[in-house]
């Protein structure tokens, strides 16, 4: 250490040295126990030797070596922290991949369930549509089949019967015969009427009808 010397006599070697609490170096011949020979302040002395504490020895080491040592230590710290960061990044990357895979599975499952529900809904609606097409004609409506017109009406008759109804118009020689009957496959109190026209009527006029049962 070329900078090392006694601050009083400037000797560099051959003597035991000590450093004062005020920051001055003295050889054993120049040490003044009462006060510092340079700044004249009361101070304490620490012998310079290998027995000094590391935080005290550092003041007598080459700064470049200290920097190199510190840089190596800093590089080790950086490497350690970088590996820890890489592990954290790898963990979250793996977790993200797993979550994306799980999300895709859930989406596919939901899509299949929706498709299945739509198919079941369509199957359930088919019988309803067919049932509407097969609904019976409500009472009071006419059905035309060729030249025969039938009408289903509720009639307050409990026993099956067949009756002829002949209607004639006054002033006309034509008449229309209506035949009412109840078949075995019809519900009670429901009759069907068949109109058998005669010759063409001239005009509608007041009429007197008589019934034949």
TrEMBL record:
GO terms for biological process: homologous chromosome pairing at meiosis; protein sumoylation; reciprocal meiotic recombination. InterPro entries: Zip3/RNF212-like (IPR042123), Znf_RING (IPR001841), Znf_RING/FYVE/PHD (IPR013083), Znf_RING_CS (IPR017907). The keyword Metal-binding applies. GO terms for molecular function: SUMO transferase activity; zinc ion binding. Keywords: Coiled coil, Meiosis, Metal-binding, Zinc, Zinc-finger. Residues 89-120 form a coiled coil. GO terms for cellular component: synaptonemal complex. SUPFAM superfamilies: RING/U-box. The keyword Metal-binding applies. Transmembrane segments: none annotated. Residues 6-40 form the RING-type domain. This is RING finger protein 212B-like. The lineage of its organism: Eukaryota, Metazoa, Chordata, Craniata, Vertebrata.
